[in-house]
């Protein structure tokens, strides 16, 4: 391994050579940037000028059918030319984005490989994106390109990578990592082993920041298995706390977007995150990699998007058997009179329940399910149109329009209401009525003419909560998102089987990446990994699995503590790659007063240690009391609506701390009363709490500490 000091750099020919290569690459990138920006500007000017002259030259002659055809052909040709400009502009804009990204750090690694087949040595520089020089030679190779796999495999000598399922055998002669800022080479390292990976250690040594960072340059071998995993219906990743599950998930999204560049858009990817605070914590990772964010939502946001207004997401603790019974019952479902509702808007009934019932009867020969509902929806749509048509013809409407302000008339009609003929009056009235009742079409589209509550109760054989309501709607109307291509579920151990079934039904064509840690299941009734596998296996046929056992977050001392708290199977394999910091502090107090003093001292020490510290309490209901104990200490209580600050001391409940990390963590009470030794959920809650800390952990106990801590 070469890690040149400043002095050594002067005399190190390799360093000088690499600095020269970096300077040349940087210069080339700047040149590409300039050329591309110029091309963009010139093309924009030319397009504007051409559009103007093309528009002037257009004959706009519709006198005869032939003239009209010719005019349309001219228009189409003009459109094609404009499309061509737009395409070139988009490509150039993309290129400029890549240059901007690479100018921050042109590359982070170099590999020298010799393919067995050709025996011709290749030198490749790997960066956050790929780009070719003006001479068309590859300047930087994208980290997601097939050959870059060799870098992540981390072994010198004979190795291989895959292209379209074909294995390419190569000899890796050199694997060099770089610490680079713009055009300055700080150091280079020739390495293969993670534990001696200086770039990784340097990256881990940086203070943690308010936002999660991409780990592109330092993805480890076991993590790379997940990032570059072949496309499978369901990939289940089990990883200990801080093993990089979330980081790996973000890298995989970037990888998939690259792999499927031609047809996968970020909006076809969905990310289920534990809470909005966490969603904000990760929102910079993909943009930092030059990619757009996927649709990120919590379970509550997902559920509420489909539930009737005012209905909460409800409890997810619904037995799976109940949903399975509903699935069986829907096969025998018959609609009955009470299953239909009026569509009413602003006090006007636009579609009567009885109309919906009649439409349903018309399709009575079909099973009461998605196909029949789709046909009914279409017919009710037409009925709504005719209803609005007759409303437009009624006298009252004309008075309503006349009473509108000038601004409203212009907004809705695009002109003032001043019809010269009956026909014109009716046309304008129709525009007005359609605008006023536009929401009614959405109501028809959302099948609000169906009484899902009543149908759901029949399917479930009793009263239903929000989750059953949602599932009943999916079963009966076919509500789903068949366009979604990938669904990522972080913290999967916190989902119940029922929630997973709802997600699997809604995203029925998507491929799933599920990441979690059974030791971090902090709620009752959530699915075990075996249950996750059985459920997803039954729906999608195949569940592939990967494991992550190294902690990149916590010091060895903290990792050793949560490894002791892990369930037996995982305990032995858990390790940390960070340098040692300090022992975990356990402060035993006998009185409430002592505990408060200890807490205040711990908070002061955490503040002193720098970075971001958190006081993590078990429940939301503990917040008020702890905040009172810490009054005057400048501790910031956090809620769902907040964003994580870069430094200071925050106070938050465990549920909100999920997935996050802090330089210091203070736990106000780890006594037997709060974490009873006989309860497994207490073990998991303690494991999750302590594993939020990267460097400093202080546990305070009022009375005897929980038996889960053993002889700490
Ligand atoms: N290969 C890596 N290189 C650099 N940093 C890494 C790497 N892998 C993980 N990390 C860092 O380790 C920390 C933990 O990562 P992450 O939050 O993704 O883990 P996790 O498994 O999702 O954690 P948890 O389940 O405990 O919430 C983060 O600070 C992340 O940046």
TrEMBL record:
InterPro entries to which the protein is assigned, alphabetical: DNA_helicase_UvrD/REP, P-loop_NTPase, UvrD-like_ATP-bd, UvrD-like_helicase_C
MF-aspect GO terms: 3'-5' DNA helicase activity; ATP binding; DNA binding; hydrolase activity
Keyword ATP-binding belongs to the record: yes
TM regions (residue ranges): none
Residues engaged in binding ATP: 239-246
SUPFAM superfamilies, alphabetized: P-loop containing nucleoside triphosphate hydrolases
Keywords recorded for this protein, A-Z: ATP-binding, Helicase, Hydrolase, Nucleotide-binding
Highest taxon above the source species: Bacteria
Domain UvrD-like helicase ATP-binding: 218-555
BP term (GO), one: recombinational repair
A Gene Ontology cellular-component term: cytosol
Protein name: DNA helicase
């Amino acid at each position: 391994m070469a890690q040149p000091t400043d002095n050594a750099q002067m005399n190190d020919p390799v360093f000088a050579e690499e600095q020269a290569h970096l300077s040349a690459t940087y210069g080339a990138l700047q040149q590409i940037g300039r050329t591309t920006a110029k091309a963009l500007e010139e093309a924009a000017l030319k397009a504007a000028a051409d559009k103007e002259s093309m528009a002037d030259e257009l004959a706009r002659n519709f006198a005869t059918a032939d003239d009209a055809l010719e005019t349309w052909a001219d228009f189409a040709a003009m459109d094609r030319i404009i499309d061509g400009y737009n395409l070139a502009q988009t490509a150039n804009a993309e290129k400029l984005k890549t240059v901007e990204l690479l100018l921050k750090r042109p590359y982070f690694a170099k590999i020298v490989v010799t393919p067995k087949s050709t025996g011709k040595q290749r030198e490749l520089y790997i960066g956050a994106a790929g780009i070719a020089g003006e001479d068309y030679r590859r300047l930087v190779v994208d980290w997601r390109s097939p050959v870059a796999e060799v870098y992540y495999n981390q072994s010198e000598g004979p190795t291989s990578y895959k292209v379209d399922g074909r294995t390419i055998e190569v000899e890796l002669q050199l694997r060099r990592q770089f610490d680079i800022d713009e055009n300055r080479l700080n150091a280079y390292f020739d390495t293969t082993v993670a534990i001696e990976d200086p770039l990784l250690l340097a990256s881990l040594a940086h203070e943690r920041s308010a936002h999660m960072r991409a780990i592109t340059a330092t993805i480890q071998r076991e993590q790379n298995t997940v990032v570059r995993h072949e496309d499978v219906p369901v990939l289940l990743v089990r990883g200990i706390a801080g093993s990089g599950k979330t980081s790996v998930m973000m890298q995989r999204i970037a990888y998939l977007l690259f792999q499927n560049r031609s047809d996968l858009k970020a909006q076809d990817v969905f990310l289920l995150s534990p809470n909005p605070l966490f969603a904000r914590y990760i929102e910079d990772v993909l943009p930092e990699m030059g990619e757009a964010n996927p649709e990120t939502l919590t379970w509550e946001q997902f559920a509420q998007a489909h539930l009737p207004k005012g209905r909460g997401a409800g409890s997810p603790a619904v037995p799976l058997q109940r949903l399975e019974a509903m699935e069986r019952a829907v096969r025998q479902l018959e609609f009955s009179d009470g299953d239909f509702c009026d569509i009413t808007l602003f006090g006007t009934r636009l579609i009567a329940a009885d109309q919906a019932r009649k439409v349903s009867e018309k399709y009575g020969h079909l099973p009461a399910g998605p196909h029949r509902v789709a046909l009914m929806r279409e017919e009710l749509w037409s009925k709504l149109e005719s209803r609005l048509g007759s409303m437009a013809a009624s006298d009252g409407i004309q008075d309503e329009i006349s009473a509108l302000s000038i601004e409203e008339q212009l907004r809705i009609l695009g002109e003032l209401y001043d019809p010269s003929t009956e026909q014109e009056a009716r046309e304008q009235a129709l525009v007005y009525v359609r605008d006023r009742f536009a929401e009614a079409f959405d109501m028809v589209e959302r099948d609000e003419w169906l009484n899902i509550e009543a149908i759901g109760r029949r399917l479930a054989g009793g009263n239903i909560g929000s989750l059953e309501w949602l599932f009943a709607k999916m079963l009966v109307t076919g509500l789903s998102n068949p366009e979604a291509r990938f669904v990522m579920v972080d913290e999967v151990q916190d989902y119940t089987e029922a929630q997973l079934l709802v997600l699997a039904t809604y995203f029925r064509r998507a491929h799933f990446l599920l990441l979690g840690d059974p030791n971090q299941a902090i709620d009752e009734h959530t699915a075990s990994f075996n249950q996750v596998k059985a459920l997803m296996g039954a729906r999608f046929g195949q569940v592939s699995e990967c494991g992550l056992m190294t902690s990149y977050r916590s010091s060895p001392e903290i990792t050793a503590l949560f490894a002791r708290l892990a369930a037996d199977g995982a305990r032995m394999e858990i390790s940390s790659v960070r340098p040692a910091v300090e022992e975990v502090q356990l402060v035993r107090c006998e009185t409430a007063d002592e505990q408060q003093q200890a807490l205040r001292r711990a908070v002061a020490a955490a503040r002193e240690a720098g970075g971001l510290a958190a006081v993590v309490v078990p429940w939301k209901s503990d917040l008020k009391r702890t905040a009172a104990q810490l009054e005057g200490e400048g501790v910031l209580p956090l809620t769902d609506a907040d964003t994580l600050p870069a430094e200071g001391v925050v106070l938050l409940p465990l549920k909100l701390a999920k997935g996050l990390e802090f330089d210091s963590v203070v736990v106000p009470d780890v006594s037997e009363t709060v974490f009873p030794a006989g309860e497994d959920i207490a073990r998991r809650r303690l494991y999750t709490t302590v594993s939020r800390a990267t460097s400093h952990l202080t546990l305070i106990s009022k009375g005897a500490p929980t038996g889960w801590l053993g002889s700490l």
